[in-house]
């Protein structure tokens, strides 16, 4: 299974997870051309959350959160700024989260870990 399919399965699991926790999804795969994308944008109460989803079948190469590099965090931050301006978000708490999705060899979901305020 290629990484794109693995990522889509992980994002679907993350969406299910956040909705089960009462978060309200606002956007999925929000892209700003030439800057990049944010996997999920959601509201958690009065906080606007920008969520990076990382799915792995194991931790041989580190945890999924460890794969969110400085460059990726920088990209997410820039895209979040564009989202905020385009949507008139001026006086609202913002949070950057990572959701780790661990899968079995058959791509079944083993666990979902939500790291709030990851960066």
Please summarize what this structure is.
The chain has 119 residues and is of the alpha+beta class. Helices cover 29% and strands 38% of the residues.
Uncertain parts: none
- The CATH topology name reads Trna Endonuclease, Chain: A, domain 1
> According to CATH, what is the class?
Alpha Beta
Strand content: 35-45%
> What does the largest sheet look like?
5 strands, mixed
Given the structure, what is the number of helices?
A: 2
> What number is the mean pLDDT?
93
How many structural domains can be distinguished in the coordinates?
Answer: 1
Q: Distance N terminus to C terminus?
A: 30 Å
The oligomeric state of the chains shown is: single chain
Strand order, sheet with most strands: 1-2-3-4-5
Helix content: 25-40%
Say how many strands there are.
Answer: 5
Helix-strand sequence = HEEEHEE
Alpha-carbon Rg, integer = 14 Å
What CATH architecture label applies?
A: 3-Layer(aba) Sandwich
The secondary-structure class comes to alpha+beta
Tell me the overall shape: globular
Key terms:
119 residues, alpha+beta, Trna Endonuclease, Chain: A, domain 1, 5-stranded mixed sheet, 5 strands, globular
Q: Topology of this structure?
A:
Elements: H1 3-20, E1 24-32, E2 36-44, E3 47-56, H2 70-86, E4 94-103, E5 109-115
Parallel strand pairs: 3-4
Antiparallel strand pairs: 1-2, 2-3, 4-5
Description:
This protein has 119 residues and is α+β, with helices and mostly antiparallel strands. The chain has one domain: Trna Endonuclease, Chain: A, domain 1 (3-Layer(aba) Sandwich). It is built from 2 helices and 5 strands; from the N terminus they run H-E-E-E-H-E-E. It has helices spanning 3-20, 70-86; strands at residues 24-32, 36-44, 47-56, 94-103, 109-115. The chain has a 5-stranded mixed sheet, sandwiched between helices. Strand 4 and strand 5 (109-115) form a beta hairpin. It starts with a helix and ends with a strand. 21% of the residues are buried.
């Amino acid at each position: 299974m290629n990484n794109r399919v693995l990522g889509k399965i992980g994002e679907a699991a993350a969406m299910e997870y956040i909705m089960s926790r009462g978060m309200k999804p606002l956007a999925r795969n929000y892209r700003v051309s030439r800057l990049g994308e944010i996997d999920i944008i959601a509201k958690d109460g009065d906080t606007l959350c920008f969520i990076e989803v990382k799915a792995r079948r194991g931790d041989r190469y580190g945890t999924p959160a460890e794969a969110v590099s400085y460059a990726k965090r920088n990209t997410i931050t820039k895209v979040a700024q564009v989202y905020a301006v385009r949507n008139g978000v001026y006086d609202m708490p913002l949070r950057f989260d990572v959701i780790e999705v661990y899968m079995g060899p058959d791509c079944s979901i083993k666990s979902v870990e939500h790291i709030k305020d990851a960066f």
